Amino acid sequence: MRTDTNQESFMEQLIHYVWKHKLFPLTGLKTTDGQEVEVIDPGLHNHNAGPDFFNAKVKIGGTLWVGNVEIHDRASDWFLHRHDRDPNYNNVILHVAESIDVDVKTRRGDYPPQMRLQVPTAVREHYEELLTTDEYPACYRIIPSLSKLMIHSWMSALQTERLEQKTEAIAQRVKDCDGSWEAAYFVTLARNYGFGINGDAFETWAKLIPLQSVAHHRDNLMQIEAFFLGQAGLLDTAAIPERYQQQSLNDSYFTELKSEYQYLAHKFGLQAMDANQWRFLRLRPQNFPHIRIAQLARLYYEQRAGLSQLLECESVKQVRELLATQVTHYWETHYVFGEDSIKSEKKLSAASLNLQIINTVAPILFAYGKHKNAEKYCERAFDFLEALKAEDNHIVRMWKEVGLMVETAGDSQALIQLKKAYCDRKDCLRCRIGYEYLKGELIIKGLRELG
Questions:
Q1: How far is CA 229 from CA 236, 264, 266, 286, 328, in A?
Q2: CA dist list (Å): 73 to 91, 97, 100, 118, 179
Q3: CA 222 to CA 329: how far, in whole Å?
Q4: Confidence of residue 450 (pLDDT cuts 50, 70, 90)
Q5: Nearest 5°: phi and psi at 348?
Q6: How confident is the model over 144-157, as pLDDT tens digits?
Q7: CB-CB contact of 53 with 39 (8 Å)
Q8: Distances (CA, A) of 217 to 17, 21, 223, 225, 253
Q9: Is the pLDDT of residue 12 over 50?
Q10: pLDDT tens profile 281-297
Q11: In terms of DSSP bridges, do strands 334-336 and 339-340 run parallel, antiparallel, or are they unpaired?
Q12: How far apart are CA 444 and CA 447, in angstroms?
């Protein structure tokens, strides 16, 4: 079996699927030499190297066999994939293919029995429809008829899958931060202050913040801001648009921060990031890096940006109180250096706080809970997502339009996972909705007629 499913033909994947779910007539099956075949258990689908299905139970000519099954589009693929040279295929009890064009042989010299398995016409047509339809999602017609139990079960699995996926990214950050969960949390928090557009830049920036060094100046907000803005490259005069450069040079706070950062950079051997990594195009001013970094600086100064504080929060309300922040005094009247704006507190909005809980807090709690084998943090992650209203974005709206109920952030996260991990990849064979689509009444009826 090839381990990269992208290399397999769509047809071979479909034959695997038909075998796994027994979407074929249960009687009348025969090997190429005329022996009757009864599939008792198709076995465990193997996604790694080796035969496609382990521990299958198949009666061939009245004799019960327990072992492995290999499946191909054409029987000759056995040799194409060099199974005749691989001892792992010596114990194959049945070779299944839609086209039997050769006899197959194991390395040991045996000739495994072969059976032709045709994909039912209705299954094939439905699968091709899922792959080629211009409508999105392709399975939209079946969604209103799905049971609430099936939808709830699949959404729960997708929600867990999404948190597992985010756990992998967090685990990599922990590794990048020399095993520090506190630092990895700060990087994750910062990344999500980019709210998508500047996410990568914020992650790069956060990894350049020497938190142990900053801690020596925790009681001085101006110095923290100098650390943060300086490492972002935003205190470099060349990073300021030309129309604001002269005003910035005359701005006492800018010159104070710049001078302070030069001192800190020399003291701690700091190297700033390239300010060109920051994106401003089509950004609302309240999302400018200067504003978000100022909010983070204040959060850090008030000792509310640490993982230990987050782990003490047992409710969404407590998390909101912990992460609620606003800019420092200077930024109340500025969005960038050198240009005044109408005075405002520039707080982190309620919507932005919810996104932080969804994208930072829940994943960190889940990942940390798994790392520490502390179930309470994993459960808290799910509880927080269920306590928040669903996100409002184009993906969620798309699913609502085809009839899915989307009420909580847990639901919206599940549906984002569904689109990105399944629909966008046309991976309908792993999707439970795709399964329902393929095994519809037309298929069941056809199998009964054939059986």
A1: 9, 12, 16, 16, 13
A2: 20, 5, 9, 10, 47
A3: 10
A4: very low
A5: -70, 120
A6: 889 999 999 999 99
A7: no
A8: 60, 62, 7, 10, 18
A9: yes
A10: 888 999 999 999 999 99
A11: antiparallel
A12: 5
* Cα–Cα separations (whole angstroms), residue 432 to 156, 325, 420: 12, 42, 15
Q: Which residues are bridge partners to 30 per DSSP? A: 36
pTM of this structure: 0.81
CA angle 246, 263, 190 (to 5 degrees): 80
Q: Report how far residue 37's alpha carbon sits from residue 217's, in angstroms, rounded to the nearest whole number.
A: 76
Query: What is the rounded distance in angstroms from the CA atom of residue 378 to the CA atom of residue 374?
Result: 7
Q: How far apart are CA 164 and CA 266, in angstroms?
A: 41
Q: Model confidence over 42-90: pLDDT tens digits?
A: 999 998 889 999 999 999 999 999 999 999 999 999 999 999 999 999 9
- Hey, what are 349's tokens? 């909005």
Quote the crossing angle between the two packed helices 10-20 and 121-132, to the nearest 10°: 130
Q: Which residues of 118-127 are buried (b: 16+ CB within 10 A; e: fewer)?
A: ebbebbeebb
Long-range own/partner contacts, residues 343-349 (CB < 8 A, 24 or more apart) = 346/286, 346/291, 346/294, 346/295, 348/295, 348/323, 348/324
